[in-house]
Each structure stands twice: as structure tokens, then as C-alpha cells.
């Protein structure tokens, strides 16, 4: 049976409320009361066998007595009556049901079975199910409120361009309320609860297809259907929606980390970061940040870059904003000469720099203020966003009105520019300037964070336009790979490796060393020996043929002592002693939910102890690889410190990108890759994978 579209759930023309209460303040009566208050555009049919009317509307004894088949049935009955209600609705061909009742899969195994029975009954007709254990949904534009959200009692939202989807009903309700209080119009809300059918992914997918939605605000604790979730993110990204998504908690990875540095570093939270980043979603760390970013994104303006121009009436506030800008990766660049000259004429009493300190005198000369804002925000000034710090000026006696009037006069000039006002003012004043197109923040720190987030969303959008990344053919599945074999595979994938040969006798080892050049390194080579150092299986800096011959015998003996006879070895690997460079680690881990990820970090304590690494969902472009390199805290060690030359970052980025393409192509073939170390030398001198381990899935 084909499932019905979510249009029937979120754009219904008729709604039945099963178990509706005559008391609008009780949970079973709230949904009906909200829809009456909002003037729902369709038919409302309360179902209550004990009453002739409910909240002034004719009541029906059962769904069989309804004058038609409702698009949606809101089931507001106690849990023990829910199953029968679902079966009745499915039999009648109802489009969707909303179930608030609790005590299902979130409670115990018995509840899980009861939840499955609900779904089985719904599937017979293709009826959609929201819940159970949810707070429902709404469409503010049509006055449809299939929800028992208590916060709506304080006022219904305005239908704007923002949609909210939340796995948690309580969080979704609070988020919608806070957005309303922030002046953001929330058009749709979906809380999925146990998500036995409609989940966060399917809700995002539907919202991405709506022309009246520009921003999707989401919350989840985990994801059940990976393909549906990723497909929804892809659709939202392709549709140009701005997604502000909070992921909390941890999920099971099912990965054994014992054999891989990468597995222990690629924790679930980092994988979620990588997934959301790949599909252009901004991940906030707090509810306050999520609300602020959704508010800013709803204005529809994204900066082309990170350069921030600042105009302030207070030097102290200007300094605070500079600090916040630095914290969030914004550039407070110096004024261009021509801009400085124009501002000097406009503000002879000001300090002309960036920040431009106009001093409190500007408050009495609003024409100069308007001209200064216009000058600094003009694209010719070279800034991607402008912050205007007014402090408490709007609270001054009579000041709020004249200041707002001045800003409204300026609004047509700056409407297509990102201008944030940092000030405190009464709500009416804030609303007037917001409606004119300005962003308003009471705290300069919040303003910097929001502008930086918009810049991040802009960067994500720009990266999307770069196109798909071609992948190589996958390697065969099954079998173990030695270091020598792993390097051949990675070399074919585009990673540089040093010259090396596999010797199966002391004479072959000497011949290999003579060809490569001394000093050399000898390594035990076997697909069964994963960690060579544990058996003393590596000899460094061997200066001549005699040392190589003796070293070969030593390694064979050590392998035998560890239980590996010479016949079980693939051979002894001979390679040149690499010049000194900066050791990094490149890795791949195949996440059981989201697939291949690629990791980068500096070697040694930086990655093992300090956990200083960057991770992305594979594949990545060379541009993204450069971002990964610059993202780690220890990047200055690669970029040249205390007179040292920078490392060859281009070679490193190419290696990361090549490994990521290999990882994406082999998500079903491998479980992990460790390239440790990948040594990178000075700029222009390249780098090489000195050791490699590929774990291949068994057939």
C-alpha cells in the first residue's frame, strides 16, 4: 500500500478530534480550541459519544457517524482506546492520524509491540501516523493546530517563512514559542515523538518542497532511517533552504576501535558534525544560538564573505565586538582609503578606523548617522556585513521615535545589505526596525555569532555549487592487505608513497637497499601483523649492506618469536629513510549510519592525547581538505612557526582529498584506513605515506 503524502497531515481540509473535550484548558480540548481561535479554514468534527456538542460544535458518537472522511484525525483519547481508533480511521480511509498518548516504545518492550500494532493497522490503508508520544503539528497559515502545545495559550504564531521539526515535543514547542517571541514567523511545526512513521527526515523532506519555507529549524537525538534523513538533507540543500539543526546525545556506533586510531577519534558527535556540514546545515550548540541563527537566516540575506564593518557610538562596545568577531572568525578589516576619507568628512568628531567610533555626538546628528551607515554598508566599502552599535540610545526620552524614523528612511538604501543593529530598545521599536529589514541584537556577542553563522551558511551554499566529485572504482572485497599491498592500493588512489621494495631473502633486501639508496628502513611485512612495533618489527637508519643483511635476519627471527614463521611472511619491506618532516595522520572510518568519513590530524600526542583532528563525510574536494587542515588547533605547526618554513599544504590537501574519494568509493568494501604517519615536508617538497593499514570487509 502506497503511503499518503504529508500534505494530508499538514494541509488538511477536514479534521476530526477523537476524544475531544468540552474544556479547552484540558489536553483533549486544546487542539480543538486552538483551531477555533485561529479560524481553521476547513471542517472541524469533534468525536465524543458522551456529548451532543463540544466547545459549541456538533459532536459525533464515532468516526463512522462523521459527515465525511477527514483528512486528519487527532486522537486525544487515553492510550487503551488508541488502537481501536487507529483501526477505525484506517478502515475509513483517513489520511493521517496524530497520536499524543504515551507508554509505547519509549517505555518498554510491551509498549514497542503496541506501537508496531498501531503502525500495522495504519499501513493497511497507507494512512500516515505522527507519534505516538508527540505534541503534534500545526500549519499557522490555515489555522490548523493538531497539537496540545501549552505555549500556544500565550498567543498563536504568525505564519512566516520558518518551519520547525523536532523529535522532542517539549523542545519543539519551546523552540516555536521562543521564535515567536523573537519576532520570527513559524509557519509549520512537526514534533515526531516516537516517529513510528513520520520522522524528522520525512518532515524535513516535506518542508524542503514548500515554497513558503526558507528556513528549517530542526532537533534530533538520533536518526532511525539513515537514507531518508540524508535524502531529506540533500533535498533541502538543493532547494536552497537554510537548515539550522541541533543534534544532541550519542548513538551506538558498533565499531571496534582497538585496531584503529581513526575509530577512537571519529566519535559519533564528530560524524554528525561532518554530515550536517556536508549538507549545508548549521549546527548550533544552544537553544539561544539556534533561535538567533534562525532569526537572522529568516531575513534571507547571506554575506558573501566574513569582512565586518563596525560603526559605534561607544569605543568600549566596539572593542567587545572586535573580540567577538575574532572569536567567531569574522575579519574586522581596515577601512579602504576612499571610505576613510568619506567618513572623515561625515564624522569630523569621530575616530575613523574600523571600528568607526562616531562617539555619542552622532546621536544628535542623525543625517550624519544615516550617511555613515550607508557609506560603511555600501558594497564598494568592501564589507560583507555591517554592525551598528547604538547601545541604549533608543531608550532615551523621545530618542526611540526619531532614531527609528531615521533608520526607516535609510531602509530602502540598505535593504539588500546585511546590517545588524546592536542596541536595547522597547519591543515596539525593535519590531519597527526589524520590519524594515534590519537585524537587532541586544548583545554584540550574539550579533557576531549570528553574522558568522550566516557566513558559514553562505560558504556551504558556495561549496554546493562546485559540483559532484568523481570517484574511483572500488577494490575487491574480502582478504587481508599487508602494508605493502595497502600502499599500492592507496598509491593508485592518488596518495604519494616513498620508493620501496619487498624482499624475500637477505640478498634481495641488499639489492633493494642498493637501488633505493642508504640509509634504509626494514619492516616486517605480513597482513597478519597489524602493529609491527609491538614485535620489534621495524629497523631504522641502516647505513650499509652489512647492516641490511643482519637486519633481515633479525626481523625474521623476531617474527618467528612472535609466532610468525618466515614462510608466513609476505617478506621484508625495504624503503628509504625519509627526511625529517611534520608527521600527520590521515584516516578513514566507515560509520554504520552515515558511511565513509575521512579524518586528518597531526601525529603523536596532538591526535592521540589532545584529540586535535578534523573530520568530514567523504568525499571532499581539495578546497574542503584545506579547510580541514586549517581547522585543527595545531595548524600553526604546519604553517611555519619561529622561523620554520611552511609545510607543503597543497600536497597534504591532495592526499586528504584522494583518500576521501577512495573512502567514498569503498564504503561497502572497507571498514577503516590508517595512514600513520603521512609525513609532509617543506612547501614545494611534497609528502608521503610512510605506513598504511586498510581493513577490508570479509565476504
Automatic annotation (TrEMBL):
Per the record, the GO terms for biological process are: tricarboxylic acid cycle
**Lineage from the top down?**
Bacteria, Pseudomonadati, Pseudomonadota, Alphaproteobacteria, Sphingomonadales
Q: Which GO terms describe its molecular function?
A: ATP binding; metal ion binding
Supply the name of the protein.
ATP-grasp domain-containing protein
Which species is this UniProt entry from? Novosphingobium malaysiense
The ATP-grasp domain sits at 487-523
InterPro entries per the UniProt record, alphabetical: ATP-grasp, ATP_grasp_subdomain_1, CoA-bd, NAD(P)-bd_dom_sf, Succ_CoA_lig_flav_dom, Succinyl-CoA_synth-like
Keyword ATP-binding included in the entry's annotation: yes
Instruction: Write down the superkingdom of origin.
Output: Bacteria
